[in-house]
Amino acid sequence: MTSHMRESEPRAEHVCPVCRGDVHSEIKRHKTLGVFVPLWGPGPCHNPDCAAYEPPRPRP
User: Is the pTM value of this prediction over 0.90?
Assistant: First the structure.
């Protein structure tokens, strides 16, 4: 299996715990044995009607 085939597999969808709406995945870094590895998790909720709403952050 080539690398581009592995990357094309669908990732699990994340939901907001408050409004149960879909949220995008967000990547964070985790240091393991001196090396930073990617850690995928749920991002902030961008639904303005949700109590856990966070406005979009400007990209650097």
Answer: no
